[in-house]
Specification:
163 residues; alpha+beta; Beta-Lactamase; 5-stranded antiparallel β-sheet; 6 helices; PAS-like_dom_sf
Length: 163
């Protein structure tokens, strides 16, 4: 093996390690929504090993995801090679993972932002999508607390003005 080949292999190894340890969920799936990549974040929060999910349909593993709705979200990614987004304000979660901070967390489940990105092959086609899942629980909890305080303040002001 040449030095260049060894260097490329070592680089590939640390890139794979980074993919597994990043604090973002990464799932790669094909046009049939069969899972090809399931990183450590997903394994940790779902309890499912990559070998448990590989080449299985996303919808068979997570029947709560509405196939028609999700396919519609993925259509521009496959056809137009553009990213699409799902925010926790639109839909609190795609994967109903429990909140992994049961003592300090105020929410029962993980709020998520999702980015769907095209993975363009060498022939220029998009046959796979990379889905990144971001934990937005702290942001969602803070926003909900702020909104609750604003309602209390408005009610208090109204009580004082009408009192």
């Amino acid at each position: 093996m040449s030095i260049e080949s060894l260097d490329e292999l070592l680089e590939f190894h640390w890139m794979m390690d980074m993919l597994q340890t990043v604090d973002v969920g990464i799932v790669v799936f094909d046009r049939e929504f069969k899972i090809k990549v399931w990183n450590g974040f997903m394994e940790s929060h779902s309890g499912l090993l990559p070998s448990d999910v590989r080449l299985k349909s996303l919808f068979s593993l997570y029947p709560g995801i509405k196939k028609d709705w999700f396919a519609q979200k993925c259509r521009p990614v496959f056809e137009l090679k553009t990213r699409t987004f799902i925010t926790w304000e639109q839909r609190p979660y795609l994967f109903k993972f429990p909140n992994y901070r049961p003592i300090t967390g105020t929410e029962p489940f993980m709020y998520q932002n999702i980015t769907l990105s095209p993975l363009v092959s060498a022939n220029g086609k998009v046959d796979n999508i990379s889905m990144m899942i971001y934990d937005m629980t702290d942001v969602a909890g803070s926003k909900k607390q702020l909104e609750s305080l604003q309602v209390l303040r408005s009610e208090e002001e109204e009580r004082i003005n009408n009192g």
